[in-house]
Structure formats: structure tokens, C-alpha cells
Amino acid sequence: MNPTRKRRLAVVISVVAAAAIAVGLTVFALQRNMSYLFTPSQVQEGQATQYPTFRLGGMVKAGSIQRAKDSLKVSFIVVDDAGAMPVEYTGILPDLFRDNQSVIATGRMADGRFIAGEVLAKHDENYMPKELKDAMAKAHQKRNIDDTAMKDTPK
Amino acid sequence: MIPELGQFALVLALLLAIAQGVLPIVGAWRGNGALMAVARPAAAGQAVFVFAAMGILIHAFLAYDFSVAYVADNSNLALPWYYRVTAVWGAHEGSMLLWVFILNVWTVALAALSRHLPQPFVARVLGVLGLIGVGFLAFILFTSNPFLRELPMPADGGDLNPVLQDPGMTFHPPVLYMGYVGFSVAFAFSIAALLGGELEQSWVRWARPWTNVSWAFLTMGIVAGSWWAYAELGWGGWWFWDPVENASFMPWLVGVALIHAQAVTEKRGSLPAWTVLLSLFAFSLSLLGTFLVRSGVLTSVHAFASDPRRGLYILGFLVVVIGGSLLLYAIRAPKVATGKAFAALSRETGIMVANLLFTTAAAMVLLGTLFPLIGDALNLGRVSVGPPYFGFLFVLLMAPAVLLLPFGPYLRWGKAEGRQLTAMALRSGIAAIVCTVAAVFFAEGRLRAIAGVAGAAWVAAGTLAYVVKRWREMPRGRRYPAEMAGMLVAHFGVALFLIGVMLSESLSTERDVRMAPGQAESVGGYQFRFDGVRETTGPNWRADEGVVTVFRDGTPMATMHPQKRTYSRGQVQTESAIDPGLFRDIYVALGEPMDSGDVEGAWALRLYHKPFVRWIWLGGLFMMAGGFLAAAERRFRAKKAAATAGAPAKEQLA
């Protein structure tokens, strides 16, 4: 092999190697950090059992927010049309958190309760995160419930 | 009547943009001077009408014209005048108008400062900018018209999203857009070169200051956005890897690669095809960024709701721009791509490696940001990618870049000598080790802090060593030309940024606590005493305002007033209180009353002590200053008398 070819070969091999490492690391990082969104009824059907941590999305049930007397622990119930899931969280809730707001909580299941490490509330009054809307709509279709109840609440 | 004039102005601007986009390009193709000469007047005309439309929308906000739906949705009688002006870009429609407005600012500057360039080339550049204008103006007129009437007219409007009612937000979007749109110049220039089938080094020299200035604006915009998130979102984070942030970060990363690649092409004539490709990417990502933020296709804490027609139009527009430019590149690039060869150990190679790292980082961010869409398309379920993905890969990709950075200035063009490199590595290495040893005593064994100090010392020492070398070896007046000074300032900014990120991330103390009035807590060596909550009011909000007295060793040093505001339309917004310092920030935010019936009682509070957090933005500002400084290089505006007004005038306009 002449020097030019040798150099080209070296360049090609190193590019391929670098690409392989990059792809490998990316897949690794993706797998470790992908998190799925489920609604309470999907969780109750057992769809989330295979994931140690996942995101739970739904509406805060009116009147379900309860605070501990001496710490930042708070518990509330997240509902969709067919399911309900008690959630426990220790910390400060977002500004928009209140009854009947759509929320997404990240965390894990323990003893039939969802232990949240992070709670996000929707950003503005008329807007529901698209993926949550879709997930709730999907949970709906399964039960053939009239779709009108799922529409965003008017302004 | 006046809002209709605004819409009419936009229609006229669209017609002129079509003329500006089609005629000069046809003229350049046919060699028809008359058609090419249309470019400048058409651009000027388009600008006049777009500026008029912008003025009319601002007027509608200032005059409380709630018959305009956009004004009614985003402002009300109680909103102060300065927030009524910024409400212009507070939502989708106005943001798009702002985009076109800034595009026209750039186009006019370009038309005025390009008289020394060959006519066909300028005609093509202005033509491409005209076509971009067509795309955006049509988008505004057909899907996102800010002048739509709402009848009957409401007595009072809604409200500007409270998170946007902050001084940081007043200039974050315009500055960010200055950066996004600025990349359209590099894009237009590349398309023009591809259309014309030749790429002269002098044209790259002409394009460089434009790219540097837009990159500097983009840096400023991101810094402002990060600062705003820190101060306004009330949880003290400065970067969340949120899709909206990623949207501005991707063009920034490619922009870093682009400004370096342009330097190689301009000075050495190497890598022309790569430079052209990068400018296509930088602008494509800017477009993607603009639309990602405003269309709400991705789940994000601050995306806005969308309507499907917009999404479809955006998708079509992106396909045309990105697909079209890549197709043109595939056909024409072999013609312009005859770069000079260079040795394996040379500055060209160094820049090439850094380029690959930065573009890979951008690709990684793109993958993570769009992954929810990919997962949706492949039926993987509702997936999102968490911040650790970005953090892990980004650090992995940037570590070698940091390691290589100080070598940059020492590498010679064409073929470098190893001797100087080892001398530099030795000096910076010693500096880094000394600083690391010192850091071990202060950082209490926190590895990230130590690594940050080591990296920053390595970069700073290498950069300063080069400053000293130039001082010794060069005659006075030729030591630091603007371009080199800009490079050194920006590289030094990297060191400051590293310190800020690594130290604030590892040494911060963050506590969320429940506090009754009179109770005290200790965080990071400071004592915080909660003195209760009182009520206060502003122009369009009322708030519970906490009083927190901060003590250091028993002596009071600050009284802080974090607020929980309720705006006139019922939205709740946390206003944090920050006691800033060069070496530490103290950050207090109100959570919620523990018993909502008793606001006088106990509250949840966030008490943060954040060492060196300000260095993050300081580093960003250094990088920005470096970008502007490099653009002022005299070489860029030499040549002909017509060009002498070049760079400084442009910065004034900008």
C-alpha cells in the first residue's frame, strides 16, 4: 500500500471507530434516560410494571390535596377518566399546581402509591401537554367513552 | 382601520419579497443586469412595509386596541407600557413578525454594506434572503396573522404570560432572534456560492464578520434566557435541557463550528465544502429552533398550543429549505469543493477535530430533543429523554474539546511544530495541577469541583501563556489584532464558564424547608431567619411578600423579599429574591403557605446558597464579547473605500 492509501485507510478506520463509539454511548445514554408516560388507568392495568421509574400524568382530583402538619410532605390523587392513583411528594409544588390541573409526576411505585421525585404542572391555563392529552385520549378510546369529556376545558 | 393597514403592509411586503426573491436570482442566472438591480430597491421596500407593520402592532398595544385579537389576548389595561411593548413578541404571531422584522434589519444592513462585491453574487444573496422572507411572510399572513380582529371588542384584555413579565424577557427574544436570523446571511452566502458554482476566499472573508456577530448575538440571547430562567422560574436552575433551550443551543453549537471553519476557509482555502455545509446546518437548525419553540410539537414547560395548519406549513417550509439546500449542495458542492491539503499536525486539523466534536454534540442534542417525536412515530409509546442523557453525552464530548483548546493558538497553519506544543502543555499542565491541588483543600473532596478547577486552569493558563508570548514576540501595535483578541477573550470565557458550571453544580446547597415566622435555618454557612409574610401590590398584581433576614456569623447582611404574585387574571408567579455576589449567590423563593387559610403562618421556602453561579453567565458574556471583537477585525473591511464603513456600522445597526 502506498502512503496516501495508508493514510486514507487510517482516517476511514478512525472515523468508523469514532462513529461506533458515539452510537454505542448514545444508545446507552438513551436507554438509561428514556422515561415513559402513563395515566393512572394504564398503571392500574399493569402497563407500567416493567419500568422502575416512569412518569404519571393526569388531573389532580379536587379536594384530594393533603399536607402533613410538620414537614413538606404532601399527598394528592391523580385521576384520568377511569382510574385514580394516590401520589406522595415531599417538596415544593409548582405555582400552577391546584385542584383539577393536569400534572406530570416523575417517580416510582411503592405499596400501591406513586412516590414522586418531581411534579410539573401545565404551563398555562388553556394548555395541556400534548403527550398527556394523547395518552389520556388513548386510555379513553379503549373504553369507548364519549370523547367530548376529554376536550380541553374552555377558557 | 389602522390594524388593517398593518395587514395591508404585510401583503405589500410579501409581494416585494417575492420580487426580491425571484427576479435577482433569475437575473444572475441569465446575466441580466436590470433584473439583478431589482434586489436592493425591493429589499428596501420590503423593509419599509415590515417596519410599518411592526410599528402598527406596537401602536395597537400602546393604544389598548383590544379589537385586535392578539392584543386582547396578551395585554390588558393594567399592564405597564414597557410590558405592553414586549408583549408584541409574547406569543406566537408577534414572534413571527419579530423574526421577519429582524430579517429585514439584516437584509438592509447587508444591502448597504455589500457594494464592493460582484453584482451577480450580491443579487443571489439578497434573492435568497428574499425567499426566506417570502416563507415567513406567507406563514404570518395565512396562519398567524397578528392583526386579526376580534368583534365585538372586549372591554379589557387577557394578560401577558406572567413568566414573561420580567426585564430579562424584554430583550431575550429580540437578541436571540438577531442570532438566529443572522445565520441566514451565512446561509444565503453559501446558497449564492453554490448557485454561482464558485467560492472565492474573499467572499468568505466578507461573510465572516456577519457570522461572528450573529453568533455573538445568539450567545447573548442564550445567556439572557439562562439568567431569566434562573431568576424567574423560581427554582434556581440555569439550564434544564428543555426542548426550548435545546432549540437555541443547537444552532449555537453548529455556529461555534462554523465560525472556526470559516476562519480556515478564509485564511487557508481549506475545507470550503465543510464550511458551506455548516452554514446550511446552522440556519436550518435556527429555523427548526424558531418553530420548535412556537409550534408546541414537543412537550416542554413553555411551548405554546398550536393549530394543525401551522404545523403542516412549518413542516413543508422546513422540508423545502433544508431539503432544497442539501439537494443543491449535493449537486454543486463537488464544483466548489477543491480545498487545499494540510498536514496531520496543523491548526486545520485542530479546528477540524473541534468541529467534529461540536457538530456531534449538536446532533446528540437534536436526537434527544426530537426523540419523543421519533418514539411517537415508531409507536414506542410516550417517551421523553431526561436531562442526564444530555449531561452525560455533552460532558463526554466537550471534555476533549476543553483538553485541546489551549493548543489551538499554538498550532501553525499548514504544518505545526511539536516543540512549542509541548512547552505550552507543560506550562498549562503545571498551572492546572497547582490549581487542582489548591482546589482539593477547598472543595471538600467533591470531584466535579476539582475537575472543573483543573479544566478551567488548563484553559486559562494556556490562553494567558499565548497572550504573554504575543506580547514578547510581536512589535507594539501588532500584538493583538481584533480577530486574535476576540479569539483569546472567547477562549478565556470558556475557562470562566467551566468554573461557574462545575463549582456551582457541585458546591451549591439547596434546601426546601418549612418555616414558621421567627424560625431560622442554616444553609451553606448562612443563617436565614423567616420574618413572616406581608401583602404588597404592583401595577397588575398583588403578592404575598416574605421577609427573610440573612445572617453570617450572627451579623445581619441582607434582607430579602421573595414574592408570590397573583396577577390580575389569576395566574400565580413566584418572584425569587437574589442577593448576588461574584463568588456566591444567595437565593430565596417562596413556596406555598402550609395552610392556605393562614398566610400569616408557616410557609415552604427554598433557601439556596450557590457559589460561583454568576461565572456561568460571565463566561458566556466573555464568549459574546469575543465574537463581537473578532468581527471588528480590520482585515474584514479593508479592500475598497466602499467597504471601510463595514463592521462598525453594522454593529450600530445591529
UniProtKB/TrEMBL annotation, chain A:
Query: What residue stretch is flagged as signal peptide?
Result: none
Q: Which residues lie on this side of the membrane: Cytoplasmic?
A: 1-8
Q: Can you name a GO cellular component term?
A: plasma membrane
Q: Report the SUPFAM superfamilies cross-referenced here.
A: Heme chaperone CcmE (SSF82093)
Q: Name one Pfam family in it.
A: CcmE
Where does the record say this protein resides?
Cell inner membrane; Cell membrane
Q: What positions does the entry give for heme binding?
A: 123, 127
Q: Cite the entry's keywords alphabetically.
A: Cell inner membrane, Cell membrane, Cytochrome c-type biogenesis, Heme, Iron, Membrane, Metal-binding, Signal-anchor, Transmembrane, Transmembrane helix
* Membrane-protein topology: Single-pass type II membrane protein
Any GO molecular function: heme binding
Pull the Extracellular topological domain ranges from the record: 30-155
- Primary site of residence: membrane
- List the NCBIfam families: PRK13159.1, PRK13254.1-1, PRK13254.1-3, PRK13254.1-5
Family note: Belongs to the CcmE/CycJ family.
* Full protein name: Cytochrome c-type biogenesis protein CcmE
UniProtKB/TrEMBL annotation, chain B:
> Which residue ranges run through the membrane?
6-26, 47-72, 96-114, 121-142, 177-197, 209-229, 249-265, 272-292, 312-331, 352-374, 389-411, 423-443, 449-468, 480-503, 612-632
Is Iron-sulfur found in the keyword set?
A: no
Q: Which GO terms describe its molecular function?
A: heme binding; heme transmembrane transporter activity
Q: Which domain of life is it from?
A: Bacteria
Domain Cytochrome c assembly protein, residue spans: 89-295
Which part of the chain is the Cytochrome c-type biogenesis protein CcmF C-terminal domain? 315-634
Q: Which InterPro entries match?
A: CcmF_C, Cyt_c_assembly, Cyt_c_biogenesis, Cyt_c_biogenesis_CcmF
Q: Does the keyword DNA-binding feature in the UniProt annotation?
A: no
Sorted alphabetically, the Gene Ontology cellular component annotations on this record are: plasma membrane
Keyword list (alphabetical) reads: Cell inner membrane, Cell membrane, Cytochrome c-type biogenesis, Membrane, Transmembrane, Transmembrane helix
- GO biological process per UniProt: cytochrome complex assembly
Indicate how the chain sits in the lipid bilayer. Answer: Multi-pass membrane protein
Q: Where in the cell is it found?
A: Cell inner membrane
Q: Which family does it belong to?
A: Belongs to the CcmF/CycK/Ccl1/NrfE/CcsA family.
Function summary: Required for the biogenesis of c-type cytochromes. Possible subunit of a heme lyase.
Protein name as annotated: Cytochrome C biogenesis protein
